[in-house]
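pinging the channel bc i need a second pair of eyes. not urgent but kinda urgent?? the chain im working w is below, pasted from the shared doc
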Amino acid sequence: MEENQIRAVARALSVLRLMNTAQRWTLHELHQRLALPKTTLFRILSTLQSEGYVQADIARGYYALTRNVRELGGGYTEQAEIVSAGASIAIRVTREIKWPLAIGVRDRNMLVIGFSTMPYSPVAVRATTIGHSLRLESSAMGLAYLAHCSKQERSIVLDLLQTMTPTDGGTAQALLESKIAEVAAQGHAVRQANEASDSATLAVPICLSGVAIAALGMTTFGRLMTTPTIEQFLPVLRETANEISANYSSRDFGEFQSGTGTR
């Protein structure tokens, strides 16, 4: 065990993982499968029971998980799964092309960078962009997402954006819808360098069944985002986005439930 690990926590998690594979367990069965002393297992089970994650049938000697274990997965969202599915792929591609990649997911009216390969790139414009929030209506990644998400989602987002901007007679809304249509036709979006940033980004959607679930962006120094650069790396981005989508769709999304397994 590594120096910074807490043994009691690791053991408790191993008990939870094993118990989630079947409906009920005896102390002896847990002892056989985990090779932990029964006294240690009893203390772990008693603690989990007092916290509401394990229930005990003392008369028959059985232990089972409670529905409270569902709380443990509440913070792990579909967006987090998308980022997890794409992280290693993005790192590999960055090591091949050198330019940094980022995976972004929508959070209300923004697109949030869930993963960035800037720490793995020798030509990154900054240390990292993880956690950065980008405007859906003006960033390359935001537009790539917005142009390829479902019509229902896009309508909701556009309504939300409209409530957050001053009334201008609908001019801004019409311009945004025109830009979205252009990006949808091209299949990608580009943000060139401007006063706010000296970098540039090329972005494509990460789609599942033709609908965007995230966005993938490649960032370069502003002056280097030329037509030849776009033509060179756009096929790479699209291929990478497809690979991330395939990896995401192949994962198991069954709910974390207690008492559903059989032995």
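so Confidence is low (pLDDT under 50) at residues 253-263. and The longest helix spans residues 227-249. — does that match what u expected or am i reading it wrong
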